[in-house]
Amino acid sequence: MRRGRTVLARAQNERGTRMTESLPETALELRSLVTPDGMLELSLHDVPIPTPGADEVVVRIEASPVNPSDLGLLIPGADMSAATVAGTPERPVVTAPLAPGALAHLAVRVGESLPVGNEGAGTVVATGTSPAAQALLGKTVGIAGGAMYSQYRVVNAAACLVLPEGATARDGASSFVNPLTALGMVETMRREGHSGLVHTAAASNLGQMLVKICLADGVPLVNIVRKAEQEDILRNLGAEYVCNSAAPTFEQDLLAALKATSATLAFDATGGGTLASQILDGMEQAINATATQYSRYGSAVHKQVYIYGSLDTSPTVLTRSFGMSWGVGGWLLTPFLASAGAEVIGRLRARVAAELTATFASTYTQEVSLASMLKPEVFNSYLKKATGEKFLVNPQLAP
């Protein structure tokens, strides 16, 4: 990364760019490449730092989480158990074969080197000429928009969430994906006329946020986990209904929770297997427990499961025992925000900022550099997506 007065520095006089420091001409960025011969290549690249436009800012990225949603772009269909590492400690290059059949689904990105990292946080070190941009100079902000596994990122000023006084980049690194997903689930529940929620893989960082939101907002929530220690995590947060899918009494426990909450909307992070079917069946049984009239078509109450993750990559199996008023579909944050509108987005983002270090606090078990992300012992750890283990990337760290 070359230092010195650069195009950006010269632009301070020519175009009114304001800066807090002299910026390099280029910055390191992590890239993911799928080759025509069915290989994945991960490497670090020097990329130019653009001069910010009038409404843009340059953010020095100091913290960016590794979310499950990042892994789909980072290692799409690759067999990382067969990965090899070449290059140098400062510039490692990871190659791994794609799983059989994966290349056909990745045709549109073959040969295209793609930046990775959905969200992050850092310091605004240069701005364009607009008042909105210049007001952010020196501020610590959270941002989303891709390419966050990079030392510097140019974004529109409107995309920045100014962190509360005293909050660090580490505090704000996960201020977008998980908080807005959790809030979006509750918002979706209200928009679609449901009165309670079911959430799977519920001890995750996102799941813990959802527990806190539902407790604060008085929303009935059924949490599904798969380990006893995960039950403890949620109960210590105040969760009332926690069901362990590995317990022999799971279906009875789930039914009791659904009867108590009348929840008819579920968000499923697992995706595969029979869990979605079990949830729908439990909802139907809970509804029928108070029914006054029999219908061979099942209850008329609509029951919905949205799959938003793929922790289980096996097929989704449905056993049709829950009548005809039901749905299973996909749910993603980006389409939700596109349909929600500016007022809703602004309201949700304001809540995230106000509760950043409480409701939406994230903890990290390991902080790594860009180069360290490509070490086998590191990527084998974050690929496990284990509950309670969350990685933070700091692009400013030395290899």
Give a description of the structure.
The chain has helices spanning 7-14, 68-74, 102-105, 131-134, 169-172, 177-191, 205-217, 228-237, 250-261, 275-288, 333-340, 342-354, 376-382; strands spanning 18-19, 26-34, 39-48, 56-65, 84-87, 92-97, 114-115, 119-127, 140-144, 152-156, 161-162, 197-200, 221-225, 241-244, 265-268, 271-273, 303-307, 312-316, 326-330, 366-368, 391-393. The chain has 399 residues and is an alpha/beta fold. The strands form 4 sheets. Strands 1, 4, 8, 9, 10, 11, 20 and 21 form an 8-stranded mixed beta sheet that branches. The protein has a 6-stranded parallel beta sheet with strand order 14-13-12-15-17-19, sandwiched between helices. The protein has a 5-stranded antiparallel beta sheet with strand order 5-6-3-2-7, with no helix packed on it. The chain is globular.
Features:
399 residues
Low-confidence stretches: 1-14
- Gyration radius (Cα, Å) is 23 Å
- Report on the biggest sheet: 8 strands, mixed
Overall SS class: alpha/beta
Query: How far is the first residue's CA from the last residue's CA?
Result: 13 Å
Q: Average pLDDT value? A: 93
* Number of strand segments: 21
Percentage beta strand: 25-35%
Helix amount: 25-40%
Number of helices: 13
- How would the global form be characterised? globular
Question: Can you describe this structure in just a few lines?
Answer:
The chain is an alpha/beta fold and 399 residues long. The protein has 13 helices and 21 strands.
Tell me the layout of helices and strands.
Blueprint: H1 7-14, E1 18-19, E2 26-34, E3 39-48, E4 56-65, H2 68-74, E5 84-87, E6 92-97, H3 102-105, E7 114-115, E8 119-127, H4 131-134, E9 140-144, E10 152-156, E11 161-162, H5 169-172, H6 177-191, E12 197-200, H7 205-217, E13 221-225, H8 228-237, E14 241-244, H9 250-261, E15 265-268, E16 271-273, H10 275-288, E17 303-307, E18 312-316, E19 326-330, H11 333-340, H12 342-354, E20 366-368, H13 376-382, E21 391-393
Helix pairs in contact: 6-7, 9-10
